[in-house]
Amino acid sequence: MRKTLFLSSAIAIVLLSAIPAEAQTSASAEEGLSSANQALLARIEKLEAELIALRASVQQSVQTASTAKETAQNAVKTVSTVQKLAKAGAAGAYSGAPSDSKWHLAGYADVGFVGGDMPGPDSFVTGKFNPGFHFQYKDLLIFESELEFSTTNDGKTTTELEYSQFDIPINDYVTLVAGKYLSPIGQFQERLHPSWINRIQGAPAGFGHDGVQPTSDTGVQLRGTVPVGNTRFTYAVALGNGPQTTFEGGVKLEGVGKDNNSNKSIGGRVGFFALPYLELGGSYLTGKVSGYAPPAGHEEAPVTIAADVPVGSSALDQARYTLWGMDAAYTKGALAARFEYLNSHRAAFFSPTADDPTGVFLPRLGMKAWYGQVSYRMSNVGRSDFIHNLEPVVRYGQFRITGHDVLREENAQDRFNVGLNYWLAPTIVTKAGLEWRDFKVAGVPSETLYQFQIAYGF
Amino acid sequence: MKIMKNNGIWMGSTLAVAMLVFAPLAIAGPDSANAKAKKPDPMQVVRGAKAWKNNCGRCHNLRSPKELTDEEWDVSVTHMRVRANLLPLEAEDIKAFLKASN
């Protein structure tokens, strides 16, 4: 019992002594925790400060990058502008700020050499210089004109106005053309005759001057394109002064400054794209011609045509001229194949002269011509750049005339051309070719010509 | 002679009427085409390249876009719009392509 009491007392003393010790330990821990928290808070505050500083740094970097990008873009724009100004300045075309009126100088030129067994010696030929001027006022209209300078056999310079016309877009499908314009009949005269486009040195027989192909007219045209589904029709309808009678009694098919009769010709062409690379066209022209009107100071009569004069026909002081034709062009990749046919006739009539008011009888005049041409640019043959620039070409055509012996003797022929072109640039070509002319009048010898030409379109 | 005069009067009157009828269209047509040209986009350049190849190459070799300045291309393509019977939108596409490539 005493032992138990002793133990109990001892435990109690121990417990009593233990209570203040525990309390002392708790206070000490609180002090330690508060210190850790403060350290942690301090660290967090430090990190927050670092984060803020980092954000500021990033924003500054972004601004710096943005400024650098803007500076670089401005530099690129400046360089681009300087390049364009330099380019425009070099071309002599820069006129300061964009203006309502713009212009463009274009055209083409050629020189060459012609030899063979034709009448006359082999010769260098000066060819032609055809500057073209295009002036545009906003999108309201464009005025365009082309001159042709050439040198005659006796050294004189000739100047001709090839065309001079206003083009006024009426709407998306109609453009009004007024002035002297290239004939819209067929394709060759309006689109293919410039020497840098023409694959042969000259025009096909009957398609140049004094041929069946009208070269130009003076008047008005309505022209444009009408889309139909996936294809389109193109058209040109022209009302012009029309053809006139030449001094030789033929038909002049060039635009004149003033008409010599009140009758106007009407004609044009309709084209159709059967495929994107296949164009088909049909042309028509009709009008009346009067007798030859000699220029002031030249009172010569036209060449008298040997023919039987129909009785009772002396009232015919004008004659109907009619032309029709068709054309086709297949142009896909390096291959270009073309075909054109023209057929015209002028009715018989009397061409009055100063000495003979009743007129010289001119019989019915018929002219027809056609040609086919194939050219192939060897851009896909082999690996040689030299071969890629070569372009062989073949053309065959015929020109026939009835009712005028002089014109027939000089012009009626079969003509065969073989040529090889070398393209120095897309608009600079050198041509070498052979031309055989087989005249269709007995006694007129055939001719073989070799021709060289360099042509530049600018 | 009287018939000729009547013929001339008739043609003159027809031309005058035609020009009066088309005059308002002449003001509206090109402006609408111009408005469309102010928003070139990459697809317009692509369409222009295709139209350039299909139309210009039909008659002659394709000129390099670098041959002319933007302003010269404006005039040259307008000239060819008439000569080659291009649609106005085709012409605008071709201009966009040539200007993007010169």
Write the layout of secondary structure elements.
The complex is a heterodimer of chains A (458) and B (102).
Chain A (H helix, E strand, L loop, with lengths): L1 H89 L10 E16 L6 E15 L3 E11 L5 E15 L2 E9 L5 H5 L23 E13 L2 E10 L3 E2 L5 E2 L12 E11 L2 E13 L27 E15 L2 E12 L2 E3 L8 E3 L2 E12 L8 H4 L1 E13 L2 H7 L1 E13 L2 E12 L7 E11 L1
Chain B lengths: L1 H36 L4 H15 L13 H14 L4 H14 L1
Give structural notes.
By secondary structure, chain A is of the alpha+beta class. Chain A has four helices and 20 strands. The longest helix of chain A is centred in the first third of the chain and has 89 residues, at 2-90. Chain A has helices spanning 2-90, 188-192, 385-388, 405-411, and strands spanning 101-116, 123-137, 141-151, 157-171, 174-182, 216-228, 231-240, 244-245, 251-252, 265-275, 278-290, 318-332, 335-346, 349-351, 360-362, 365-376, 390-402, 413-425, 428-439, 447-457. With 102 residues, chain B is an all-alpha fold. Chain B folds into two domains: 1-31; 39-102, no CATH class. Chain B is built from four helices and no strands. In chain B, helix 2 (42-56) crosses helix 4 (88-101). Residues 23-37 of chain B have low confidence and may be disordered. At the A-B interface, helix 1, strand 1, strand 2, strand 4 and strand 5 of A face helix 1 and helix 3 of B.
Keywords:
heterodimer; A: Porin; 16-stranded antiparallel β-barrel; two-stranded antiparallel ribbon; B: 102 residues; mainly alpha; 2 domains; 4 helices; globular
Structurally, the number of domains of chain A stands at: 1
Largest interface: A-B, 60 and 45 residues
Calculate the terminal CA-CA distance of chain A, rounded to whole Å.
Answer: 137 Å
How helix-rich are the residues of chain B, as a percent range?
Answer: over 70%
SSE succession of chain B: HHHH
Number of helical stretches of at least 4 residues of chain A? 4
**Helix vs. strand class of chain A:** alpha+beta
Largest sheet of chain B: none
Mean pLDDT score of chain A: 86
Give the CATH class of chain A: Mainly Beta
